[in-house]
Amino acid sequence: MPAQAPPVGDTATIQLEDIGRRIRAQRKRLHVSATVAAEAAGLSRVTLHRIERGAASVTMGAYLNAASALGLQLVVNDPEIRANHEPIEH
């Protein structure tokens, strides 16, 4: 049974659903089955489907693995840094 989803707000729900849609669209664009994509990401097919639906109970690592297996990269944007054009120092 999947873990219970943590409470998330409307914005987070929308973002997770958007990420899931993008992952699914990329998988379809590449003509990759859910089973093959899940195996490449080290996930079960069920977990991949939960990601594609934007489930909040799936770990961030699983989202990152699914995206990476399909050649996608998840990026966190900081609006303040973008507005000021200040690069992040390493």
How large a portion of the residues is in β-strands, by DSSP E?
under 5%
Secondary structure: number of strands: 0
What is the radius of gyration?
15 Å
What is the quaternary state of this protein? Answer: single chain
- Name the helix and strand elements from N-terminus to C-terminus, one letter apiece: HHHHH
Helix count from the secondary structure assignment: 5
- As residue ranges, the low-confidence spans are none
The main β sheet shows up as: none
Helical percentage: 55-70%
Tertiary shape: globular
Q: Mean pLDDT across all residues, rounded?
A: 90
Structural class: mainly alpha
Q: Distance between the terminal alpha carbons, to the nearest Å?
A: 40 Å
State the gist of this model.
The protein is mostly helical and 90 residues long. Helix content is 58%, strand content 0%.
Topology record:
Blueprint: H1 10-29, H2 34-41, H3 45-52, H4 60-69, H5 79-84
Helix pairs in contact: 2-3, 2-4
Describe, in plain words, how this protein is organized in 3D.
Helix 2 packs across helix 3. The model has no long low-confidence stretch (mean pLDDT about 90). The chain starts with 9 loop residues before the first helix and ends in a 6-residue tail after the last helix. About 20% of the residues are buried. Helices cover about 60% and strands about 0% of the residues. The protein has helices at about 10-30, 35-40, 45-50, 60-70, 80-85. It is mainly alpha-helical and about 90 residues long.
